[in-house]
Amino acid sequence: MAKGSEIKKMVFGSVGAIAAATIVFSGISQTVKALEMSKTKAVPTSYSIPYTKPFNSNIPTDDVKKDYKIKFVGQDQPTVNDMKMEEAAELVSKNLWRIFQVDLKGKTLDMTYYPISTTRLRPKWDVSVKINDLLAYHYTLDAVTGENLSTEKSVYHDADIREEMDINPNLLKNSQEYQELAKATAEKYQFVSGKVTSAEYEGQVYQANILGAQNVTIIFRVKSDKGEVARLTFSRYNQELLSVEFNSWIEEFELKVNEE
Predict the structure, then answer these.
(1) Fewest CB within 10 angstroms: 9, 24, 133, 183, which?
(2) Domain span including residue 148
(3) Percentage of residues in the chain with pLDDT exceeding 70?
(4) pTM to 2 decimals?
């Protein structure tokens, strides 16, 4: 299945996992589309932002301000009730450092605002930053509360990863190693509130970009004793964390599916 400059071949263990893939990749396609829209001059960040602590942010309070630039892309403008673009950018910067240890010095954050619509239950800030041809990061926040919705490290490798490696049959029988990795990662970064109680296998993915670089992934749904869920994706190439879909993002998607 091709989308833009990417090819993703998905093999899932359940119908629910197919829905999971839809929401993971739809956010990416929105970002790509936004980057093709109107662009304005990038401005350096040189401000101190006095915003209140965002919902479930778990961001460090003593990190150093990153010397990045921000650029508004897209058409819709935020309202007076939404976080300012600078506020959203700083929050994303802190969270990208917390989760992926991304150094944004000298980078440009492309900012897209999406208002509430008939298919969108809340306004959102989508943020995208390209590092190079093989690596980019994406982050989505609630535009009002700053609540984390989803994030992705989009990375490809110039390695011997063949398309027939889209699914590892051994992981269908036993994915315990990755289950433990998913639970430990969710606990470490507090992706869900409470104690992580389980990690359920959802699927495997092969993907390649237009340059022929590739990656293979595995997806898990983690649950906590407080009823929260998060969906985590790891690379099967090197076991690094690639994406997180937070509880509210998953709930919103499932709500829309149930209404259809």
Answers:
(1) 133
(2) 2-259
(3) 72
(4) 0.78
**How many Cα atoms sit within 13 Å of 119 on the Cβ side?**
5
Number of structural domains the chain divides into: 1
For 141-165, what is each residue's pLDDT tens digit?
Answer: 999 999 999 999 999 998 888 766 7
Q: Tell me how far CA of residue 202 lies from CA of 217, 232, 240, 258, in angstroms.
A: 11, 10, 17, 19
Q: In what order do the strands lie in the sheet with 43-44?
A: 2-3, 6-12, 196-209, 214-224, 229-235, 241-245, 148-155, 135-142, 124-132, 108-114, 69-72, 43-44
- Cβ–Cβ under 8 Å, residues 27 and 34: no
3-state secondary structure the chain: CEECCEEEEEEECCHHHHHHHHHHHHHHHHHHHHHCCCECCCEECCCCCCCCCCCCCCCCCCCCCCCCEEEEECCCCCCCCCCCHHHHHHHHHHHHHHHHCCCCCCCEEEEEEECCCCCCCCCEEEEEEEEECCEEEEEEEECCCCCEEEEEEEECECCCCCHHHHCCHHHHHCCHHHHHHHHHHHHHHCCCCCCEEEEEEEEEEEEEECCCCEEEEEEEEEEECCCCEEEEEEECCCCCEEEEECHHHHHHHHHHHHHC
The residue type of 166 is D
